[in-house]
Design goal:
76% of the residues lie in helices and 0% in strands. It is mainly α and 168 residues long. It has one domain. The two termini are 25 Å apart.
C-alpha cells in the first residue's frame, strides 16, 4: 500500500513539473505507469491532471503578480512609439481577439477546458494570456484542472486498453 502512495505522489509531482517545464510529457508518464502496472490508469490520470492543474495555477499567479516586482515597476526611458507595420497590426488584432475570447463569460471557460484537454489552443500560451486578462482565478483553476484530469484519464484508459489487448 505504501508503494501506491509513492506512485500517486510521483504522478502528481511529474504533472506539476510538466506544467512548468513544457518538455516533460505527461502522456509518456501515463504509458510508463500502465506498462509497469504499478498504479491504475484512472489514478495515474487524476494525479497527473491535478499536478498539471496546480502547476498552471502557480504559473498563472506568477505572471499575474509579476507586475508588483520592484524591478518591473520602474519606468523605462521614454522612446518614441514605433510606427505599426502590417504584421504588427495583425499580431495586435490576434492578441486582442484572444483576450476577448478568454474574458468572455461563456467561451472563456470552454477555451480553457479545450486548451488543457486537447491542447487547442496550446495551454502554455493560453495560461500566460489568461493571466494578463481580467479572468477570475477560480474559473481558470477549475476549468484548466478539469481539462487536464479528463485528458489524462482518457489517455490512461486508452493506453490500458491497448496493453490489455496486445500484451495479454
Amino acid at each position: 500500500m505504501s508503494e501506491t502512495w509513492w506512485q500517486l505522489l510521483l504522478a502528481f509531482g511529474y504533472g506539476l513539473g510538466g506544467s512548468l517545464i513544457p518538455v516533460v510529457n505527461g502522456e509518456a508518464f501515463i504509458v510508463a505507469a500502465i506498462a509497469t502496472n504499478l498504479i491504475g490508469p484512472v489514478e495515474a490520470g487524476i494525479c497527473l491532471g491535478l499536478g498539471q492543474g496546480i502547476g498552471k495555477m502557480v504559473l498563472f499567479q506568477a505572471v499575474k503578480h509579476a507586475r508588483k516586482l520592484p524591478v518591473l515597476r520602474r519606468k523605462p526611458k521614454q522612446r518614441p512609439a514605433p510606427v505599426p507595420g502590417t504584421w504588427r497590426y495583425r499580431w495586435s488584432r490576434v492578441i486582442a481577439w484572444g483576450t476577448s475570447l478568454v474574458e468572455h463569460p461563456r467561451w472563456g471557460p470552454l477555451g480553457l477546458f479545450l486548451s488543457s484537454s486537447v491542447s487547442v489552443p496550446p495551454n502554455y500560451p493560453t495560461t500566460i494570456l489568461a493571466a494578463t486578462t481580467k479572468i477570475n482565478f477560480a474559473i481558470f483553476a477549475i476549468f484548466m484542472t478539469l481539462g487536464f484530469v479528463a485528458r489524462y484519464v482518457v489517455v490512461g484508459l486508452a493506453a490500458g486498453g491497448l496493453f490489455v489487448r496486445f500484451f495479454s
